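--- STAGE predict ---
source: upstream dedup step, 1 unique chain passed
mode: sequence only
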Amino acid sequence: MKIIFLSSRQSKSLTLTLNTWAKVALSLCVLGVPLGAGLVIGANSDRGDASLRAALAAVQAELDLQHEELQLGVASADKKIAAYSQKLAEIQARMVRMDALGERITDIAGLDKGEFDFSHTPAVGGPGELDGDELATVITEAEQVGAGITPGPRANNIISSDLQDLFAELEARMDNREQQLDLLRVMIVDRDLKRENTISGRPIAKGWLSSHYGKRTDPFNGRKVWHLGIDFAGKEGSDVIAVASGIVTRSEPYKGYGRLIEIDHGEGYVTRYGHNKTNLIKVGDLVKKGQVIAKMGSTGRSTGPHVHFEVYKNGRNVDPASYIRRTVR
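--- STAGE serialize ---
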C-alpha cells in the first residue's frame, strides 16, 4: 500500500509505502476512535436512564405513601362521622324519652300545655364570633369538604372544635333537663302521697247527706244528743269508699255502729264507717284513697241504709264537714 503526500509550495510529492502491519495499525486508528466514542456515549446514556428510572421510582413511592396516608385519613374521618352519628342518635333518643316524660308530667300535674314541651328547640341567639372574612373562609372550606376536597388544617380545627362545643352544649342541656324532670317527678310523687293520705271528699259514691254533725234529736228516744259524725243515706248495697289511704285498724261489729270499719291515715288522723251491710276489708289491709271498702247497710242502731262517717284528729272527734269539702292541690 502506498501513501502519496503532495506539497503546494515546492511542487514535489512524497511517496510512503506501508507493509501489512502498518495497514492494520492504520485501520485500527481510523475505525477505533469512532467506536470508542460511541461506547463512551452509550455508557453515559445508560447511566442517564438509570437515574431517570430511579427518580421515577422515588416519585411513585411518594405517591404511594400519600395515597396510603389519604386512605388512612378517609378511614379516620369515617370513624369520626360514625362516632358523631352514634352520639347524635343517643342524644335524640334521650330527647324522645324526655319529651314523653314531659307530656306525662303535664297530664299528671295538670300543667298548662306547652309548659314542659321539650319537643321544640329552645329559642337562642346572639352575635357571631367570626368576622365576615373568617366566616367566608370557613364556609368555603366547609363547602370543599362537601365536595370531597381536603380542607386546610384551620378548617379541620374549627369544624372539630365547633362539633365538640355543640355536643358539650347539648349534653349540658340534657343533663339540666333530666335534673329538672327528676325534681318535678319527686315533687309530684310527694304531692300524690299527700293527696292520698289527706282526708277529703265523701265516703260514698252515690247518696245524700241525711244528718249533720253536732247536736240533734235522737231518732229512737227523741232526746237531744250529740251526733259524732255525718250520715249519708243511699241505696242498700251501694259502695262505701275510703276518703284517704291508710291501714285498717278495725273491721267488725261494734256497739251501736253495727259493722264498723276504722282506718288509720297517719299523722293522728282516723276515720270510721258504720252500719255497713258487708265489710270488704280486714284488719291490717292497706287501702287507697277512693277504694271500695264496704257495702252500705243498716246494721246496728239504724233506721235505714246509710253510712255513719266520723273523723278523729289526735284522738279527738271533729266535724267531718270541713274534710269533706277540702280540696287537695
